[in-house]
Hints:
By secondary structure, this protein is mainly α. It has helices at 5-26, 35-39. The chain has one domain (5-39). The chain is elongated and about 55 Å long. The chain is 60% helix and 0% strand. Keywords: Membrane, Transmembrane, Transmembrane helix.
Amino acid sequence: MVPSIAQTAVIGAIPLAAAMVAFWRIGIETKGRALEVITGEAGSS
């Protein structure tokens, strides 16, 4: 049996919702960090 368009949309929305919740709970892991610190290039010149 082939799922309808609505069922397919719901199935696709489940992982999207899980990702949104994870991103909301964990947050941006680079928040408040300088680009040099993230890339590891601080003081390498």
